[in-house]
Design a protein that fits this description.
The protein has 164 residues and is mainly α. The protein folds into two domains: 81 residues, Alpha-Beta Complex (DNA Primase, Chain A); 67 residues. 58% of the residues lie in helices and 6% in strands. It contains seven helices and three strands; from the N terminus they run ααβββααααα. Strands 1-2-3 form a three-stranded antiparallel sheet, covered by helices on one side. Helix 6 packs antiparallel against helix 7. The N and C termini lie far apart (42 Å). Bound molecules: zinc ion (ZN). Zinc ion (ZN) binds next to loops.
Amino acid sequence: MIDTDKIIQSVDIGKAIEYYTGNRKIHNKYLCPFHNDKHPSLSVKTEKQIWHCWSCDKGGNVINLVRDLYGLSFVDACKKIATDFHIDIQIEEPKKKDTWYEIEAEIRKDRKEELQEVKADIDKEIELLTTAHRVLFRYGAPKELCNQYVEEIEALEELKKIAR
Ligand SMILES: [Zn+2]
């Protein structure tokens, strides 16, 4: 597995935006590379090393940035950042089932923080869980772990029906 925290914490997000987009900071914001941005609408939060575009609503950390900017896989984006910013990371396939549960716990922790920020709107929650499920599934996490997400998503869909 990859030490994604190390990558995220090692690279100043503002520097990464400048490095990968060639856009300089103007009035504390950057031109967004993901839409036709005329007035800088991409802002960064250095304490968390995250970025967000207020116009097209894209955002995330340096890994999402590079992945989407270059159309890379998650792992290849990590490798590219590590090379570009001289970060020493070990990339190996997770072998033990336990490792998957650790990764899942991390994802869940991140999702939880994001959810609190969006005030736990059901649709947003479904979206976040769907993304988490997709990531786990794509990288071959155990089936029962993936199924937990499917069950949670289904439960939320049900809740939505009742709530309306
Ligand atoms: Zn944008």
